[in-house]
Amino acid sequence: MTSTPYLTVQALTKYIKKKFDVDPHLRNVYVKGELSNVKHHTGSGHIYFTLKDEKTQIKAVMFASHAKQLKFNPESGLKVLIKGDVNVYEGGGQYQLYAQAMEPDGLGSLYLAYEQLKEKLQKEGLFSDLYKKPIPTFPQKIAVVTATTGAAIRDICTTIKQHYKLTDIIIFPALVQGEHAAKSIVKAIEQANNTPEIDTLIVARGGGSIEDLWAFNEEIVARAIFESKLPVISGVGHETDTTISDLVADVRAATPTAAAKRAVPSSEELAKYLLARKAQLFQLTQARIKHEKAKLERLQKSYPLAYPDRIYRPFIERISRIDERLHQSILDYVKNQKFLVAQIDHRLQLRSPLQQLRYEKTRVENDEKLLKKAVIQQLNQRKEEFRSVIRTLEALNPLSIMTRGYSLTYHNGKVIKSIQDIKEQDEVEFHLHDGKAVATITSITMEGKGE
């Protein structure tokens, strides 16, 4: 009996996937439908969604490498045209659409992206008049962010110099078209904001198609303009073109030339301003002269100017008293200094080497006398003590007693203190003060103790 060859789920799924892989009809498939359950993965950048119509639906994914190319933001409910491959996702065991390109169905992708970003930024308040900064009337330095080639930069510089020669123009070159244009524009705006003493910033480029102007519809450019510390004038394209940058900028000009005119005062405005300032200055001068003249008249009639001697008389008397006190202070000071000098001179004389030598010599002589006296006293005291010791020793010396007839008797080198220390026939020695003698004991008589 043979066993039935069961397939694993993985083996079956791999087999089905291989069928999908070799089917040419599942490559470069063009599908249209409505987006549903759109999820933008923030970490990887992949977009996961469901493409559906009235009767069915299919899971789909667009990887980050293709999602970066989109000009608009895919949202649920949007009808789209998709080009991609159909294959099997082994982990889930289901087939799905791998989108490679996506376009809105019925609308251009750039127009849709423009509307989506416009709605997003409008909700955030980036177009609000509350954040619009005023443009300086008389700028000293104007920064221009645009391409260094083309008519825009020439029109801007020519227009500014024709209308207002008192300002300097600083150009921050930037790409205004192409894939890297948006980052280049943002970098130039940041450089202008970090340059000191600039009053106004113009962001501009000449006309073109929506594709040519698209860098000025990028979100990073719009946010850079909104965050600019400098007031921004946007002059992009022709009069009929309106970009996101125009809506975010503090002032929108129809063309680069119009932006230049808006950045500086016109000749007529400048003339009116100067005439107004001249009239204002004249009026202020007249009023100031009148005020100062009246002030002078009041001062001339005032008590101090009418009787000036009465003002400075007390000061003269005060100065005289101060002068007298100063003179007396100087005399007292000199007297005190003389006294101090005399004291110091006396101290120096006392401390002179000769005086010190005399003092030390006298002190040494006195010390020498005292030392001699002390030595003699000490010697006499020692002599007397020595004599006293001699007398004591003589009194205690047993030999001195022997001179009076006493003797010491020894037996075998020991002093005989009792009759019991010897016996008959013992040989003993008698020590007298002038010698000794040897004798033999012939008889011993013991005496009784007295009462």
Describe this structure in words.
This protein is of the alpha/beta class and 451 residues long. It has 13 helices and 14 strands. The protein has helices at residues 9-22, 64-67, 109-124, 151-163, 181-193, 219-226, 244-248, 256-263, 267-300, 303-306, 308-350, 353-396, 398-402, and strands at residues 29-40, 47-52, 57-62, 79-89, 94-104, 141-146, 168-173, 200-205, 232-236, 251-252, 408-411, 414-415, 427-432, 435-440.
Short description:
Among the domains are: about 10-105, Nucleic acid-binding proteins (OB fold (Dihydrolipoamide Acetyltransferase, E2P)); about 140-265, Succinyl-CoA synthetase domains (Rossmann fold, 3-Layer(aba) Sandwich); about 400-440, no CATH class. The protein is built from 13 helices and 14 strands. The protein has helices at about 10-20, 65, 110-125, 150-165, 180-195, 220-225, 245-250, 255-265, 265-300, 305, 310-350, 355-395, 400, and strands at about 30-40, 45-50, 55-60, 80-90, 95-105, 140-145, 170-175, 200-205, 230-235, 250, 410, 415, 425-430, 435-440.
Layout of secondary structure:
Layout: H1 9-22, E1 29-40, E2 47-52, E3 57-62, H2 64-67, E4 79-89, E5 94-104, H3 109-124, E6 141-146, H4 151-163, E7 168-173, H5 181-193, E8 200-205, H6 219-226, E9 232-236, H7 244-248, E10 251-252, H8 256-263, H9 267-300, H10 303-306, H11 308-350, H12 353-396, H13 398-402, E11 408-411, E12 414-415, E13 427-432, E14 435-440
Parallel strand pairs: 3-5, 6-7, 6-8, 8-9, 9-10
Antiparallel strand pairs: 1-2, 1-4, 2-3, 4-5, 11-12, 11-13, 13-14
Helix pairs in contact: 4-8, 5-6
